[in-house]
Specification:
The N terminus is likely disordered. The chain is mainly alpha-helical. It contains 17 helices and no strands.
């Protein structure tokens, strides 16, 4: 009887998770549909330079954003007390506002010294960085809050709101002749609209001036400040480092091609992995709080993600150049080659996003910190060797991608070892997927061109 009740409970939980994933996927699919329709228009209106400049400014803003909450946002998911969760929310919001203003000033000075060739109005630069930093962090906090409370009916509308605003405003401003700043303005307005939508369902009072609140939150969540904060900084810096390296070594024009590459490769992640990852993080957090072993659940999730992510990444790897030229035009052919080189790396990123927060849940933020430190060094080595030894961006991307994949495999092997799951099973599974993707791509390319 007990076994039967346990089975029914598990089945009910899995069914609920599927419904939650479906809700988020609905909004994401519609938003990405809008994105696919508008992207060919955007690329023809704005060009590689605009996309490259936006990618560089966004990269800087994201790095700043990584430390603006002191690493406390994920504490919202793991905290037991609702009263303390509200206090964490207020402290984060209060910290982010002044940091956003201060960093906007720093970026203006940074622009004058290190980016004099970047033709961006200083006042616009300041405003973009401040607004982008504050709103994007607030969006992340709101997402985490609503995810904790399983408000997926609200979350499913976010990408749709952002996509509609970006498409409508971006195209309108471009056609009106605001080519230099139109896409930037549309991007910011999309973030603001998304934030307003979510803020309606969070506590009205979002700031606190009580010094004791800051002490309590930081003391209670010390592990997030000590481990999660540096990890967040490293993750953001690592994720944005390719953009910084490419813009520095090859210019914002080449960064524009790379940014479109990333955007297309992220489609499967945004469509599927992000939604799965949010539900996964919420589910594993609850399981861990209840004292359950999450190892088998994590392994099942990541192997399922391999099956789901294989097809879209295989298509992009084998047909990336053809897809880009067909949709975006011959001017963007370089982006197609980038897609083919980076597809396997983004397959691994698909798996990472699907199992979001696993190191946080099991209290192994240190593993993530070490992994990201090594990846930063690997990116720098790959880009530097590609530029100064071979003078070839394609070789640079191959080196950076290969090193990323190797480090990611080692990281997950160690996580599975901690969770009591066979890391050898994972290793065999992932190597098989890489082998099949490379082999099938070679066969398909030979068949197409012969």
């Amino acid at each position: 009887m007990m076994i039967q009740k346990l089975k029914l409970k598990i089945i009910k939980k899995l069914s609920k998770n599927k419904k939650n994933v479906a809700k988020i996927l609905t909004g994401t699919f519609l938003a990405q549909g809008i994105s696919l329709i508008t992207l060919p228009i955007f690329t023809r209106i704005y060009g590689a330079e605009v996309f490259g400049t936006l990618a560089l400014l966004s990269a800087i803003s994201i790095i700043i954003n990584s430390f603006s909450d002191l690493g406390l946002t994920n504490a919202i998911m793991t905290e037991d007390s609702e009263k303390r969760v509200i206090k964490i929310y207020k402290v984060i919001s209060s910290i982010v506002a002044p940091i956003s203003l201060f960093t906007g000033i720093l970026i203006v000075f940074y622009h004058g010294i290190f980016l004099p060739k970047l033709e961006v109005n200083v006042l616009f630069l300041f405003s973009f960085v401040v607004i982008s930093t504050f709103t994007s962090k607030q969006i992340h906090v709101c997402y985490t809050w609503l995810n904790r409370n399983e408000r997926y009916n609200i979350l499913m509308k976010n990408p749709l709101i952002s996509g509609i605003i970006l498409g409508a405003v971006g195209i309108s401003l471009g056609l009106m002749g605001f080519v230099k700043y139109g896409y930037f303005i549309a991007s910011i307005l999309g973030q603001i609209a998304t934030l307003i939508h979510m803020k309606r369902f969070l506590p009205k009072n979002m700031f606190t001036l009580n010094v004791q609140d800051y002490r309590d939150v930081v003391t209670t969540n010390r592990k997030f400040v000590v481990f999660q904060l540096p990890t967040n900084i490293l993750v953001s810096f690592k994720n944005q480092l390719p953009q910084l390296l490419i813009s520095t070594l090859w210019g914002v024009g080449m960064l524009g091609y790379y940014s479109i590459t990333v955007r297309l490769l992220q489609l499967p992640i945004k469509l599927i992995a992000n939604s799965l990852g949010r539900v996964f993080f919420q589910t594993t957090s609850v399981m861990y709080r209840e004292g359950k072993n999450i190892g088998d659940y994590v392994y099942k999730t990541i192997t399922t993600a391999m099956k789901i992510g294989f097809l879209p990444m295989f298509i992009l790897m084998s047909l990336g150049d053809i897809i880009v030229v067909t949709i975006l035009g011959t001017d963007w052919e370089i982006a197609g080659y980038f897609i083919q080189i980076l597809s396997i790396q983004y397959f691994f990123m698909f798996l990472t996003f699907t199992t979001r927060g696993v190191s946080i849940t099991i209290g192994k933020q240190k593993y993530a910190m070490i992994s990201n430190c090594v990846q930063v060094v690997a990116y720098i080595i790959g880009a530097t060797v590609g530029r100064y030894v071979f003078n070839d961006i394609f070789i640079a991307l191959i080196l950076m991608s290969s090193l990323f994949i190797t480090i990611n495999i080692i990281y997950y092997c160690n996580l599975f070892k901690v969770m009591g799951v066979s890391w050898i099973k994972y290793l065999i599974h992932i190597i098989f997927n890489i082998y099949m993707m490379l082999t099938l791509t070679a066969i398909l390319r030979l068949w197409i061109f012969n």
